[in-house]
Amino acid sequence: MQILGLYNYWIFIVLMMCGFYVVISRGNLVKKLVGLNIFQTSVFILYISMGKITGGTAPILTGTATVYSNPLPHVLILTAIVVGIATTALGLALVVRINEAYGTIEEDEIHAQSEDEAL
Amino acid sequence: MTEHLPALQVVVPLIAAPLCALLRPGRAVWLLAMAACALCLLIAALLLDRVLAQGVISYAMGGWPAPWGIVYRVDAANAYMLLIVAMIGAVVMAFARPVVEQRVRLPVRKQPWFYATYLLCLTGLLGMIITGDAFNVFVFLEISSLSSYALISIGRDRRALTAAYQYLIMGTIGATFILIGIGFLYVMTGTLNMEDLAARLPAVADTRTIRTAFAFLTIGISLKLALFPLHLWLPNAYAYAPSAVTAFLAATATKVAIYVLLRFFFTIFGAQFSFGTMHLDAILLPLALAGIFSASVVAIFQTNVKRMLAYSSVAQIGYMVLGISLVSVTGLTAAISHLFNHALMKGTLFMALGCVSFRIGAVSLDRMAGVGRTMPWTMGAFVIGGLSLIGVPLTAGFVSKWYLILGALERGWWPVALLVLFTSLLAVVYIWRVVEVAYFQPAPEDRTTGEAPLALLAPTWTLALANLYFGIDTSLNAGVARRAAEALLGVGQ
């Protein structure tokens, strides 16, 4: 039953691989960013899972709780979420500029135009 | 005041960045950014001086002691790195103003943002070096990466946009891999402090989690340092970024990633685990050699000189990784001194190209015909940088190649030493192609432009002369590098 008990780690692995595959396989620049987002989000689940302690409550001093979750990974991942937002925003801004410059956001079409320039 | 130097090293550019963004375009914003960079350089010099005299400095950020708070820890290795990055940051900032005003795709009212972004990038790089906390490395890594994507994207060529996008995708994958690796380390040890990690890891080292963490960290950091074959983002990013940005990033960003590699593998995991148990050298050595050889060959066939030097950077990174994979004091000394020397030579070369593109608007070989006569000072600096890149005696580049060959021979790997010599000859070929075009072909009749302005020449020549100076006085780039290598390997002292 241990494999089922670790289901959130399985979700992490599946999400991570889905996101990674989308980044590699898609030629549309926005879809790539979506994949990158899923890839980053999967890591959030990894960090949040590792802070959870079975039967633990929120780490607030009430005087009654003896077992509580580790708050540090949750705080860490807040930072990573902010980084993820900044990356997505910057990525989308670049895609807007690429669309203005090339008139397309398909990787192969951009590549073809760049090839022409090089010649 | 002096006890707060480690914090000020990062805080000064961090505070200066938003202040720059608030100022109007013009001389004042550049002066503020320049003052911040100069102050950073001063702080880095003071820190190195104190570390060499008194040993390791530990600074608890905000007064929170070690296991809870973030500790900045400065030893010989990172004080030396801080000096490299702060020095290049200041010299390139001096170079940047004419470039930003003329050669960047930014409307005038947005030019202060360039300085703000540049200072943020500097903050991130300095922070990655100085911090003693593994998660903090990731945070500063993202600060420097995000700002460098933005800096690359403002190049005039529209391909700068796609280069920045490609770098963003690959850089984020690399950073996320590092994040996963740090997470696994935290799960097994319950700490993020580098010293604590180093103390607690041996007890749990023989687990799958730690080995997975090791793998994720290796790939993630290798992506950031552009180790062959993970270097694909680098040539376009360097070729199409504005010349000041290329000079800054080529001389600092990949170097800092190499420092992070050293810190994780030698300080946190320990040389015994990284190279004894995991046999990392068996992977790094062939990749380094393949990178040196293939990138040098590709560089010979480039017609865009900036792109040629970008491929040469991939080869030079190979030399540094080769030094690391020797896992000896001499090998590490070669790698660490090459961090410094390569920053000097590539800084000089890219800034000289910046002068060329400032005057004639392009850096392709066919457009550069005759520039040796119309821009003698610029090309003079280029030649000095080129000689240093090749590794001619009495230039800085010779020092690190010397140690590298010495290190390879110490291990009895004479074919490796021969390959280093052979690839230096490849460097002669690609540098000669530029020299031949610039000096031995006539300039086109209609070229009326002359020498680059003094504001560009002065910083370029500062670095060019540094190439010569540190080729003769090696107390800093070889002496301190050796102390740093010994500190990382935990021997001597």
Task: Summarize the structure in words.
The complex is a heterodimer of chains A (119) and B (493). Chain A has 119 residues and is mainly α. Chain A has helices at residues 2-5, 7-25, 29-51, 71-102, 107-118. Chain A has one domain: Helix Hairpins, CATH 1.10.287. In chain A, α2 (7-25) packs antiparallel against α3 (29-51). The longest helix of chain A is centred in the last third of the chain and has 32 residues, at 71-102. Chain A starts with a helix and ends with a helix. Chain B is mainly alpha-helical and 493 residues long. Chain B has a domain at 280-493. Chain B has helices spanning 5-22, 27-54, 76-102, 111-130, 134-153, 159-189, 194-204, 208-225, 234-240, 243-268, 271-277, 280-300, 305-325, 329-360, 371-374, 376-390, 396-410, 414-440, 454-472, 475-489; strands at 57-60, 71-74. In chain B, α5 (134-153) runs antiparallel to α10 and α6 (159-189) crosses α9. The A-B interface holds A 20, 23, 29, 32, 36, 39-40, 43, 46-47, 50, 73, 76, 79-80, 83, 86-87, 90-91, 94-95, 97-98, 101-102, 110, 114, 117 and B 135, 138-139, 142, 146, 149-150, 153, 158-159, 161-162, 164-165, 168-169, 172-173, 175-176, 179-180, 183, 186-187.
